[in-house]
């Protein structure tokens, strides 16, 4: 019973601290530090039940890394636009950080930020659900597609009941290869 409670507490704590991309190592390290306070005598931290085993902590770290991997890398909008040289490019390339969604373009293969929106909440599970507010005040949601985990569908609402009318395919994202 203690293992279940421990896993639940660690999961809730870690998920509340969890962020995209660069923070995944910090979260994993934090959990490992909680589990093992560095004592050489083999004892565990006072924060963890002595009945907890290393496999449960390792499993939790692995799950958190899997969640973070859902948003790693660069994404691109489905909508395309013409560049000055006549080539077609995605309207925006997108990168996720701890609390922001960065929209930009590529210049000489480098990501250049055009604008940034604020992430209000992130939920991970079978689907990744990100609720954000645009600089213009528009509230929107990205949600993992049911058919492809490399696609984030865009809904111009936070209310799931409004999704059918608020879906914007051109603003949806696909993971860059």
TrEMBL record:
Name of the protein described by the UniProt record: Lipoprotein
Record organism: Butyrivibrio hungatei
Taxon lineage: Bacteria, Bacillati, Bacillota, Clostridia, Lachnospirales
């Amino acid at each position: 019973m203690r293992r279940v409670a421990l896993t639940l507490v660690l999961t809730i704590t870690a998920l509340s601290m969890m962020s995209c991309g660069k923070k995944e190592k910090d979260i994993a390290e934090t959990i490992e530090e909680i589990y093992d306070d560095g004592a050489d005598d083999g004892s565990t931290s006072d924060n963890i039940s002595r009945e907890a085993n290393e496999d449960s902590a390792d499993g939790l770290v692995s799950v958190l890394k899997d969640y973070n991997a859902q948003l790693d890398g660069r994404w691109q909008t489905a909508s395309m636009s013409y560049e000055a040289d006549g080539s077609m490019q995605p309207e925006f390339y997108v990168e996720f950080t701890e609390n922001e969604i960065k929209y930009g373009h590529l210049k000489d293969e480098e990501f250049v930020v055009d604008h940034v929106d604020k992430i209000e909440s992130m939920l991970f599970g079978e689907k990744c659900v990100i609720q954000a507010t645009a600089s213009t005040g528009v509230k929107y949601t990205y949600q993992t597609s049911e058919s492809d985990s490399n696609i984030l569908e865009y809904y111009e609402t936070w209310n799931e009941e409004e999704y059918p009318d608020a879906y914007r395919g051109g603003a949806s994202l696909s993971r860059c290869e």
